[in-house]
């Protein structure tokens, strides 16, 4: 297990657990980073995938203040679990890959700030901008007890929401679709 605190060292900690393990963020301060969340892939016949957990210490609520999209670099058969984090300033993005191996993303007790960030009155600064973009058709996404902005998820990926709020940020915006065009997304 790796730990980070004090608003620094997030990417270093993420790099250290990319082969499997846990990174615990120990405090409730802001981390002004645009991280890449990494999970090394496994492609050998019968080999099980790697699992990386990035979590807030019990009682802590760290805020990741990104300046753009944060990459979810989940390799073949990999699982990434994010627990207890607040992410503002940019979406999380899982790109398509050149293989058909599954990737798993689990978000628990997180806030992906709707509208990417908030105005002083609490309104979204960028209504309709996605908080999560999943382009990998073989991804499985589970979101539990979270608040997020819009979700754009490939129409072939699996999506399960439990006790979660998805807020488009404005009544005329789309909260869930497949590609950002406003068309139908994957069945929830």
Structure summary:
This protein is mainly beta and 188 residues long.
List keywords for this structure.
188 residues, mainly beta, 7-stranded parallel beta sheet, 6-stranded parallel beta sheet, 1 helix, 19 strands, 37% strand, globular
Q: What is the strand content? A: 35-45%
- The succession of helices and strands, N to C, reads EHEEEEEEEEEEEEEEEEEE
Average predicted confidence as pLDDT: 93
Q: Helical content, roughly?
A: under 10%
Q: Using only CA atoms, what is the Rg?
A: 16 Å
Count of individual beta strands: 19
Widest beta sheet: strand line-up: 1-2-5-8-11-14-17
Low-confidence stretches: none
Q: How would you sum up the global shape?
A: globular
Largest sheet: 7 strands, parallel
First-last Cα distance: 34 Å
Number of H/I helices: 1
> From the helix content, strand content and strand pairing, which structural class follows?
mainly beta
Describe the protein.
- There is one protein chain.
- The protein is mainly beta and 188 residues long.
- The chain has one helix and 19 strands.
- The protein has one helix at 10-16; strands at residues 2-4, 21-25, 30-31, 36-39, 51-56, 63-65, 70-74, 79-83, 86-88, 92-94, 103-108, 111-112, 132-134, 139-144, 147-148, 151-153, 158-162, 165-166, 176-177.
- The strands form three sheets. Strands 1-2-5-8-11-14-17 form a seven-stranded parallel sheet, covered by helices on one side. A six-stranded parallel sheet has the order 3-6-9-12-15-18, with no helix packed on it. Strands 4-7-10-13-16-19 form a six-stranded parallel sheet.
- Helix 1 (10-16) links the parallel strand 1 (2-4) and strand 2.
- The longest helix has 7 residues, at 10-16.
